[in-house]
Design goal:
Blueprint (H helix, E strand, L loop, with lengths): L19 H12 L6 E6 L5 H14 L3 E6 L10 H7 L11 H10 L11 H18 L2 E6 L6 H13 L5 E8 L13 E3 L5 H9 L7 H11 L3 H13 L15 H12 L3 H13 L4 H8 L9 H5 L3 E4 L2 E4 L2 H9 L3 H14 L4 H11 L5 H16 L3 H14 L3 H18 L2 H12 L5 H17 L3 H12 L7 H18 L2 H4 L2 H4 L18 H15 L4 H9 L12 H16 L3 H16 L11 H10 L3 H18 L2 H18 L20 H17 L3 H9 L18 H11 L2 H15 L5 H14 L5 H9 L8 H17 L3 H18 L2 H13 L17 H11 L4 H8 L3 H15 L15
Parallel strand pairs: 1-4, 1-5, 2-3, 3-4
Antiparallel strand pairs: 6-7
Length: 931
């Protein structure tokens, strides 16, 4: 089963991935004035400081700036003025125009002229300042200095003097230094930009841009090991490619290349013997504490042996843990030892871990050569424990290694099948594809093949290949279905996800018949998520609701009539599955508040273990519901998280879905750049991904309407339906019927919209949901007979249940008020407009708020201009960070919540303070009314 393609190599001038904010800050320094003309880039090795300086240099040269660049080197750090000579070398011929005493001071410092008695340091400093000032009168100058920590101190003293006095000359300065604080000698007041790790999404994009993109488990482990360090991502991708993508190391390590070895060989070679042994055991262990490592290595209780490794910058020993200072250091340290020593290290660690069977099993597996059933069984036990807790990635890793250690082919197939299930729940379709091919080559057992098809079908669906997914699932279900009813349920549940994403009638059609007679859970099933009757019945109900949403309300009532499951801090996987099933039912039944509440609980439980794969089919439903119910800040956060998951795991259609919903939010807020990018329309086959097409059309229509192009808005919303009014997507299209009607009313196409409304009304049946009833009344008021307009407007605006969809309710009130104003009933229109304006303002829908404000003025009510929102300039992630900081959370607490590093949080806050007009953390609280 082939599930992914290769990556593309970025051009030589491609900007660094994930550093847009930092690049913008650098370019402001290159082009700006005053204090903005100088800054220092800080960051650990491999974070991309040199690449960012190169971007700034390229931009400066393109604009005609003279660039004077140099790089500090350790070899010249003790040679006086060596670095300054390298920096000024291109302009030294212009020193001839300096006054004689200044020229002599410069030439003497650089050894061009012999010293004539004791030198005067002030003369040299003034000479350099004068030289740069003279050059800058004719042309802007940019000084770029990389690795300033290796500048010789004399050069740095002169540079500091010059920087403090370049107040009027057109000279700009960019420095870069390793570490988190400026090195000694750099002016203390110099603005700094700290480069933290890349976000998960950016790291995934960087990995995918490499010539040979790793896939599956190797790719996920690579991203974990790299920790967001760009150099680590690039080097480990190269290492994985050189090893054929198969060289996974025990405990989550990765293959090695000569380049990685060269980075650390000298430091490792110079360590004492016991320290090298400790470093090897630490590299082999990864998760073990300090006591375990030292006991396994036979080092005794004293910490002296770690001192040289800490001094060499390889590790930090802190709070009972050993932490490698750089992501590549662990790989290099592990591979520096010969194979027999690595094997012995794992055996010794296993012997020291008698109280931790899970970790002991992993070390035994790492030391295992060939097959060993006892090791395979121990790993399988470890996986079952992890799966019960929801740790699907760990379970999948353990089961895959267990299968590899299994002597018998039947056991190997069974364990591979269980690993594949865990990989599906972890959300990694590439890994699923790798395991699927291994299982189908090992067995013809219908239940095992059904389990494999279940995961493979979801993987293909996430890649956007819905028809192929449908074929894989139906081949497992017909003509000889699996004997286990829970396997049938699992397959049909995935088929429902494919049916929803594809929107194809032929995929939905067999679902009800396949589930006939499937009820109740089984404690003997291999599906931990279906072990309880409540969980299995919730999945059955959600699957049937997806096949026919008209039954969703009745199915939801049946599930909700049961007593609630006992409350617990951390629900197990079966209870989490039940909760997600209720959330899916609520989505189909338009019970939006219940949908949000249920999916929140389910996501919290899954997210605690970093295994969101089983939630993938509901992620867009959650995002849309958050938007519809006015929870836009939460929608921003949810879409940011989902976008990261989609990028890391290559959920192709979901990457486009996220972009579309983010575009909808931008358009509603009146932000620039609203429509989805052109590439989104061709990234997957939209004909078999109709849900994605529906999101794109809705986003394009919303953006066009916000821009005042109602003809384009009508075309996009009309594309959600066939010529005869049949919905393109059976569930999503009808929920845009009021938007279509509004665009039709603006463009005089009411008759065409009525055709669609009639088809939507017929498909909704005799008992549509409250939400669909309100939307259809709203559409009828805009496109129906004039004599019936007020009747429909009233029905669209008076039902209090409709308040849970504030945007749709406010739009209906706005349109009703506009109709009333055209009837010259200004007094009736004013309260509707005032309420609509308040809702639009609270939501942040600036365009609609301005339209309501204009209508109020036209009806004779004076309105105040909308206050500027300083938060509107920030990204969704920055708004989230600012909100948490305003609540009083420290950087480390914010980082833990958002899965970022504290340095990234600090950098974001530093960059947003000027945009928000604040100078301290205490002022952030004043920006929010709802804290």
């Amino acid at each position: 089963m082939r599930t992914s393609g290769g990556g593309t190599t970025p051009g030589p001038q491609a900007p660094p991935v994930g550093r847009q904010a930092e690049i913008a800050r650098l370019l402001r320094s290159v082009e700006g004035g005053g204090e903005q003309r100088m800054l220092i880039l800080l960051g650990e090795a491999g974070t991309g400081k040199s690449r960012l300086l190169a971007v700034a240099v390229g931009h400066a040269r393109d604009s005609g700036t003279l660039v004077l660049a140099c790089q500090g080197t350790e070899a010249e750090s003790r040679q006086s003025f060596a670095s300054l000579h390298q920096l000024l070398l291109p302009v030294l011929p212009e020193a001839a125009a300096l006054a004689g005493h200044l020229r002599t001071a410069l030439e003497t410092a650089f050894g061009v002229a012999p010293a004539q008695g004791p030198s005067d340091p002030m003369l040299l400093r003034v000479a350099v300042l004068t030289l740069l000032t003279d050059v800058a009168r004719r042309r802007r100058v940019l000084l770029t200095i990389d690795d300033v920590q290796h500048f010789d101190r004399d050069s740095l003293d002169v540079l500091g003097f010059v920087m403090r006095r370049l107040t009027t000359a057109d000279v700009h300065v960019l420095l870069a230094a390793r570490g988190q604080t400026p090195p000694a000698g750099v002016p203390e007041a110099l603005p700094s930009v700290l480069l933290g790790p890349l976000t998960e999404r950016a790291a995934a994009e960087l990995a995918d841009a490499q010539p040979h993109v790793p896939t599956g488990r190797t790719r996920i482990e690579l991203l974990r090991q790299a920790g967001g360090n760009p150099l680590a991502v690039i080097e480990l991708c190269r290492a994985a490619a050189a090893d054929g993508g198969t060289g996974m190391l025990p405990g989550g390590g990765l293959p090695q290349t000569e380049r990685i070895q060269e980075l650390y060989a000298a430091r490792l070679r110079d360590l004492p013997g016991m320290t090298q042994r400790l470093i090897l055991y630490a590299a082999a262990s990864q998760y073990e504490d300090l006591d375990t490592i030292m006991a396994a290595a036979g080092a005794g209780p004293d910490l002296w042996a770690w001192a040289s490794a800490e001094e060499a910058g390889l590790v930090t020993v802190l709070d009972g843990r050993v932490v490698f200072r750089h992501p590549l250091a662990r790989a290099a340290s592990y591979h520096a030892a010969p194979a027999y020593l690595r094997q012995q290290a794992h055996r010794d660690l296993a012997a020291a871990l008698t109280a931790d069977p899970a970790r002991r099993a992993w070390h035994l597996a790492a030391a295992c050569v060939g097959h060993d059933e006892s090791v395979a069984a121990a790993l399988e036990d470890t996986a079952e424990l992890a799966a019960r807790l929801g740790g699907f990635f760990a379970a999948g890793e353990a089961l895959q290694r267990s299968a590899e250690c299994s002597p018998a082919a039947a056991d190997r197939a069974r364990r591979y099948a269980k690993a594949l299930r865990a990989a599906q729940n972890a959300g990694d379709p590439s890994w699923v594809g790798e395991l699927y091919d291994r299982i189908t080559a090992l067995t013809e057992d219908r239940d095992l093949l059904g389990m494999a098809a279940c995961a493979a079908g979801m993987a293909l669906s996430l890649f956007g290949r819905q028809r192929e997914a449908f074929q894989v699932l139906m081949n497992a279900l017909e003509p000889n279905p699996p004997g286990d009813a829970m396997t049938v349920l699992a397959l049909t549940s995935v088929l429902n996800a494919v049916a929803y994403q594809s929107g194809l009638p032929e995929v939905r059609r067999p679902i009800a018949a396949l589930l006939r007679g499937v009820r109740g859970g089984s404690r003997d099933t291999v599906y931990a998520e279906l072990k309880t009757t409540d969980a299995a019945d919730a999945v059955v109900a959600a699957t049937l609701a997806g096949a026919d949403p008209a039954d969703a309300a009745a199915l939801l009532r049946g599930v909700r009539r049961r007593p609630a499951s006992p409350g617990r801090q951390s629900p197990d996987i079966a209870e989490t599955t039940r909760i997600l099933g209720v959330g899916a039912l609520a989505w189909y039944a338009d019970e939006s508040d219940l949908c949000v509440e249920s999916l929140r609980r389910g996501y919290r439980a899954l997210g605690a273990h970093g295994a969101m794969g089983s939630a993938a089919p509901s992620l867009m439903a959650m995002a849309a519901t958050l938007i519809d119910t006015g929870r836009w800040a939460e929608a921003d956060r949810h879409l940011e998280t989902t976008g990261t998951l989609a990028a890391v795991h290559k959920w192709r259609h979901m990457q486009i879905d996220v972009e579309a919903l983010q575009a909808i939010l931008r358009a509603l807020r009146g932000e620039p750049g609203s429509p989805p990018a052109d590439g989104a329309w061709t990234a997957v086959a939209l004909e078999e991904n109709r849900a994605t097409r529906a999101w794109l059309s809705r986003a394009a229509g919303t953006a066009a309407g916000a821009a005042g192009d109602f003809d384009a808005a009508y075309r996009h919303f009309r594309s959600l339906f066939d010529e005869d009014g049949t919905a393109l997507h059976y569930f999503l299209s009808p929920r845009s019927v009021a938007d279509l009607a509004a665009a039709a009313q603006r463009t005089g196409r009411q008759a065409q919209a009525r055709l669609v409304l009639d088809a939507v009304r017929a498909a909704a049946g005799e008992r549509p949901t409250t939400r669909m009833t309100l939307l259809m009344h709203h559409a009828a008021a805009l496109t129906g007979e004039a004599k019936d307009a007020e009747h429909h407007f009233r029905l669209a605006t008076v039902n209090p249940v409709g308040d849970q969809w504030p945007l749709a309710r406010a739009q209906a009130r706005l349109h009703y008020a506009q109709w009333l104003r055209r009837q010259r009933r200004l007094l009736d229109a004013r309260p509707l407009l005032a309420t609509a304006l308040e809702t639009f303002t609270r939501l942040g829908a600036s365009g609609l708020a301005e339209e309501a404000r204009a209508e109020l003025r036209a009806s004779g009510v004076a309105t105040a201009p909308a206050p500027a929102d300083p938060l509107s300039e920030l990204t969704a992630q920055q708004r989230h960070i600012v909100r948490l900081a305003a609540r009083g959370l420290r950087n480390r607490e914010i980082a833990e919540r958002l899965l970022l590093s504290p340095r990234t949080v600090s950098s974001h806050l530093y960059n947003v303070y000027p945009k928000l007009g604040v100078s301290s953390r205490n002022q952030l609280r004043d920006l929010f009314d709802d804290l």
